[in-house]
């Protein structure tokens, strides 16, 4: 009889489980080319059962038989936290908005960091999206989801994943088509409050240029003196939102404003000692003067809407406004179309011109020398009425009674009301 103390411990084969503090976790074990592979399937808390683990083992053995087994699947799973670190290094060099994405990457690392990369599923991302929506706006969730999708897409390119699990996760519906623009009175009050603010001497030129050029906040803060032509009649925006440089013409008011500004630094908006104005400083100063002027629901982007809205109301066509704003498609510019009802009304009036040649033969057939039986030879206008048919309804019955009464009052014979045959029987 063999000594039980000298027996080797039993090695789990096929499907087995282990119990941890969080519950039971299922694993599978198989051999590929003489190498033992142990693979984690999932926890019972997530709905994984022994039957599902057995099905996973059967699928793995089928891949081995068909020669489709991939060794990276047998390697130790890479946690999402390490992917976030790698993607952060990549985004720091290759992405212009890394300074804003850095905060979101930290949020994603805290949320998914301990999950193995291969176990990150669309369902798990959907749970995070629903929980995140309870804390922040839908637009914020969509921006964070976009970064997560980009990070997982990079993992697919780097051969860390076979498929992006977030590709099937849809963004939340957002209705953010803001069209808040300042009236002439609101703009005057805002400029007056900015002139009284001695802490930001550059704020008045910033407001004037934003309203007269329609530049985005970042484009305006990055505008350099070298981006202006010799006569300061044209500004060249090299770094735009869609990475397409554009040229913005400057009107006489903007040219006069730029002529009064001192070239203290490389940028047009700068402190007296030459340092450029930061977006945080601009935000604080703008909120301060909005409160002082009593202008509510106003952001810096409202100034861009003000530029476009007043152009459209002045009669400028939408295609020109699109070029001035730098929109790639006309869809974004169409939000201002309701501010220009005159060109829509003019388009409808052109319909009458198009239909006039088709109406002339009818007038000729009616006779233009007074033989048509109408004063001046004008054609009699035919009055169309709905044919009475179909089942009777209370509204229809009331309509018929009113029409019969109207005919009787015109001197015609009063039509007898219809009597149902059964009415006589009941009588």
Share of β-strand residues: 5-15%
Low-pLDDT stretches? 4-12, 362-366, 370-379
Estimate the mean pLDDT confidence. Answer: 80
Query: What's the CATH topology name of one domain?
Result: hpI Integrase, Chain A
Any idea what the CATH architecture of one domain is?
Answer: Orthogonal Bundle
Biggest sheet: strands side by side, in what order?
1-2-3
Cα separation of the termini: 113 Å
Tally of helical runs? 16
For the sheet with most strands, the description reads: 3 strands, antiparallel
Form type = flat
**Class from secondary-structure proportions:** mainly alpha
The CATH homology group name of one domain: Intergrase catalytic core
- CATH domain class name of one domain: Mainly Alpha
Rg over alpha carbons: 37 Å
Helical amount: 40-55%
Could you give the count of β-strands? 5
SSE succession: EEEHHHHHHHHEEHHHHHHHH
Please give a structural write-up.
With 427 residues, the chain is mostly helical. Among the domains are: 61 residues, no CATH class; 78 residues; 156 residues, Intergrase catalytic core (hpI Integrase, Chain A, Orthogonal Bundle), CATH 1.10.443.10. The chain is 48% helix and 8% strand. It is built from 16 helices and five strands. The strands form two sheets. It has a three-stranded antiparallel β-sheet with strand order 1-2-3, with helices on one face. The chain has a two-stranded antiparallel sheet with strand order 4-5. The radius of gyration is 37 Å and the shape is flat.
What is the topology?
Elements: E1 14-20, E2 23-32, E3 35-43, H1 50-66, H2 80-94, H3 98-112, H4 122-133, H5 138-157, H6 184-196, H7 203-213, H8 217-221, E4 234-237, E5 246-249, H9 252-260, H10 279-293, H11 300-313, H12 318-325, H13 330-333, H14 341-366, H15 394-409, H16 421-426
Antiparallel strand pairs: 1-2, 2-3, 4-5
Helix pairs in contact: 2-3, 6-10, 7-9, 7-11
